[in-house]
C-alpha cells in the first residue's frame, strides 16, 4: 500500500519536473526573442 503511494508521488514529481523544464525552455525562448 505504501509503495503505491510512493510510486504515485514519484510519478507526479517527474511529471512536474518535465512540465517545469518545458516552461523554462519556453520562457528562455521568449526572452531570447
Specify the helix fraction band.
over 70%
Kindly state the mean pLDDT as a whole number? 93
Instruction: Using the CA coordinates, give the radius of gyration.
Output: 14 Å
How much of the sequence lies in strands comes to: under 5%
Q: What order do the helices and strands follow?
A: H
> What spatial form do the alpha-carbon principal axes imply?
rod-shaped
Number of strands: 0
Main beta sheet strand tally, sense and closure: none
Alpha plus pi helix count: 1
Which stretches are low in confidence, meaning pLDDT under 50 for 5 or more residues running?
none
> Which structural class matches the secondary elements?
mainly alpha
Distance between the termini: 49 Å
Explain what you see:
- The protein has one helix spanning 2-32.
- The chain contains 1 helix and no strands.
- The chain starts with a helix and ends with a helix.
- The chain is rod-shaped, with a radius of gyration of 14 Å.
- Helix content is 94%, strand content 0%.
- With 33 residues, it is an all-alpha fold.
- The mean pLDDT is 93.
Amino acid at each position: 500500500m505504501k509503495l503505491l503511494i510512493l510510486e504515485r508521488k514519484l510519478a507526479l514529481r517527474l511529471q512536474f519536473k518535465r512540465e517545469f523544464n518545458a516552461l523554462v525552455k519556453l520562457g528562455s525562448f521568449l526572452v531570447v526573442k
